[in-house]
């Protein structure tokens, strides 16, 4: 994610990596699945999402405001979000960022294709309907932070669980995945489109990466583990 990994980022990867160890056993025992996605493909998806979490694919470039307070807060934000903010500030002009918008491979592209696969081959419209609810929740609860991009609460995917339990208990795991991850991706993109570029900005906006990857991966983990109870 933006080619910068500090101690907090390493701890995050270690935490998720340790979580995958018992999940590997459960997948070997064929205990976890996402509807038509069986245990082995599911485990490979989770591994690939984590391994490629630091790979960004640039798709666009826009002009955004370089807020002066970033020079003061750069070191703190760099430590909190694991972004090379000091370096990025040195490359930009005094008043504006030539902002690169990129898609994160592990946090956007891979889960997006899994999402589409489930929607097409499962044909459960409850997940799509709940996705809209999750999208609204993300729009209201997320924020665009100068120098970072869109920041989504790490555990927002939990909101999808009670809704899925009420409206689609038979397809619980896949509906949590579709509504949770789809809502996070759509909500973060809508939040990005609503940003006033004359007042806020960042050198790089990483959709599915910095600020959103943890929320997406936690949701994927939750959806996978919930399938054990079905």
Automatic annotation (TrEMBL):
Ranges that cross the membrane: 12-28, 34-55, 96-119, 125-141, 148-167, 173-195, 207-229
Record's keyword annotation contains ATP-binding: no
UniProt-listed Pfam families: DUF1614
Natural source organism: Methanococcoides burtonii (strain DSM 6242 / NBRC 107633 / OCM 468 / ACE-M)
Identification of the protein by name: DUF1614 domain-containing protein
Domain of life, per lineage: Archaea
Keywords in alphabetical order: Membrane, Transmembrane, Transmembrane helix
Keyword Transport listed: no
